[in-house]
């Protein structure tokens, strides 16, 4: 068992580190009443955070929930700005320096310098390698059923205790894990939840790499892709993963989990990936076309035009990572027509 991390709690409790956490939290955030008030009384809030953490009197607010429906319906929780500053401090000072080095190099979601497109490029590279090295390369693609809602809190805490010994840090960690009293599930949207999820799935990652000896393996949060040699190997590997998830992590795979020949291409993270090229996922094409139709019906105001421009440019930035030149040009023509429509 590796040496457990100790004596780290006090080291993060400095005014400069709390101020840096505030700056990171504020970055790219819209000006709201909470952010304006925090900045107006910045030194007072920093001192208050320092005092509560130092005296161990801080309790995490439950925040507010809201529903998002794209790409699928889910409930997102958002903490007050004050709590997000402390959450930023917690992750940046206690989790990233100690846990990220323990993650496998092909775990990508919510990890600094490991974004979506790095993940896609690595997967395509693995596909090319597997095609050269395997006689009959097969893809095993897994997805966890209701992942965030079924994470077992006791198991999560035990996993964290394998790596950390500092009692004060562990007490603060309990407050984040048990924001509510439910036996299972962590809130989607919390910064801590992203890292707790990665810590949880890190157990499976090391099992796949070290016990099952799978060479070509990628994970983006709860969606994993393995490339193995042959259909039988894929079937056997899937059975072992299902058993591990059930016995060690109390998780189940959903109906999207399957195995198939590599030559079919892999639909992953919004793209359909082949060894030689990448395409935009069919549903994403449908979604942007629906969006353009919706924009045509909107009242033409400067505010609406600004929102439309931001949304279309974001889609175009995503689409440029695929072989989609003709599609982009076609939709750009539709987009430009919006400015010619009169109400």
Summarize the structure.
By secondary structure, the protein is α+β, with helices and mostly antiparallel strands. It has 13 helices and nine strands.
Radius of gyration: 23 Å
Helix-strand topology string: HHHEEHHEHHHHEEHEEEEHHH
Sketch the major β-sheet.
4 strands, antiparallel
Question: Which consecutive residue ranges, at least 5 long each, have pLDDT under 50?
Answer: none
> What structural class do helix, strand and pairing data support?
alpha+beta
Oligomer: single chain
Spatial arrangement of strands, main beta sheet: 4-5-3-6
Shape: flat
Number of helices: 13
Helix content: 40-55%
pLDDT averaged over residues: 91
Distance between the termini: 69 Å
Explain this structure to me?
This protein is of the alpha+beta class and 343 residues long. It has helices spanning 15-26, 33-40, 42-55, 81-99, 116-133, 147-150, 153-163, 167-177, 191-211, 231-249, 282-297, 302-319, 325-337; strands spanning 64-68, 74-78, 137-143, 216-220, 223-229, 258-261, 266-268, 271-273, 278-280. A 4-stranded antiparallel sheet has the order 4-5-3-6, with helices on both faces. Strands 7-8-9 form a 3-stranded antiparallel sheet. Strand 7 and strand 8 (271-273) form a beta hairpin. The radius of gyration is 23 Å and the shape is flat. 27% of the residues are buried.
List its traits.
343 residues, alpha+beta, four-stranded antiparallel beta sheet, three-stranded antiparallel beta sheet, 13 helices, flat
How are the secondary structure elements laid out?
Elements lengths: L14 H12 L6 H8 L1 H14 L8 E5 L5 E5 L2 H19 L16 H18 L3 E7 L3 H4 L2 H11 L3 H11 L13 H21 L4 E5 L2 E7 L1 H19 L8 E4 L4 E3 L2 E3 L4 E3 L1 H16 L4 H18 L5 H13 L6
Antiparallel strand pairs: 1-2, 3-5, 3-6, 4-5, 7-8, 8-9
């Amino acid at each position: 068992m590796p040496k457990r991390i100790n004596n780290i709690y006090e080291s993060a409790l400095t005014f400069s580190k709390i101020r840096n956490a505030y700056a990171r939290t504020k970055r790219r955030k819209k000006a709201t009443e909470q952010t304006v008030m925090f900045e107006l009384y910045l030194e007072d809030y920093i001192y208050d955070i320092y005092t509560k953490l130092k005296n161990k009197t801080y309790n995490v607010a439950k925040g507010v929930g809201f529903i998002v429906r794209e790409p699928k319906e889910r409930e997102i929780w958002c903490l007050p700005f004050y709590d997000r500053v402390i959450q930023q401090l917690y992750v940046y000072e206690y989790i990233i320096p100690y846990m990220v080095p323990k993650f496998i190099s092909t775990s990508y979601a919510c990890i600094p310098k490991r974004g979506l497109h790095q993940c896609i490029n690595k997967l395509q590279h693995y596909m090319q390698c597997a095609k050269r090295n395997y006689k009959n390369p097969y893809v095993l693609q897994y997805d966890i059923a209701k992942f965030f809602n079924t994470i077992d809190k006791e198991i999560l805490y035990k996993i964290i205790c394998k790596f950390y010994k500092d009692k004060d840090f562990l007490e603060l960690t309990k407050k984040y894990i048990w924001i509510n009293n439910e036996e299972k599930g962590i809130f989607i949207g919390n910064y801590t939840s992203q890292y707790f999820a990665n810590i949880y799935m890190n157990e499976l990652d090391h099992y796949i790499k070290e016990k099952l000896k799978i060479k070509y393996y990628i994970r983006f949060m709860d969606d994993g892709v393995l490339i193995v040699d042959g259909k039988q190997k894929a079937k056997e590997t899937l059975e072992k993963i299902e058993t591990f998830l059930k016995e060690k992590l109390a998780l189940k795979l959903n109906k999207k989990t399957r195995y198939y020949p590599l030559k079919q291409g892999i639909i992953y993270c919004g793209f359909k990936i082949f060894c030689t090229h990448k395409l935009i996922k069919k549903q994403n094409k449908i979604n942007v076309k629906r969006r353009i139709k919706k924009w045509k019906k909107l009242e033409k105001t400067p505010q609406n035009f600004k929102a439309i421009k931001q949304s279309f440019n974001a889609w175009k930035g995503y689409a440029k990572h695929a072989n989609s030149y003709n599609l982009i040009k076609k939709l750009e023509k539709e987009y430009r027509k919006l400015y010619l429509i009169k109400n």
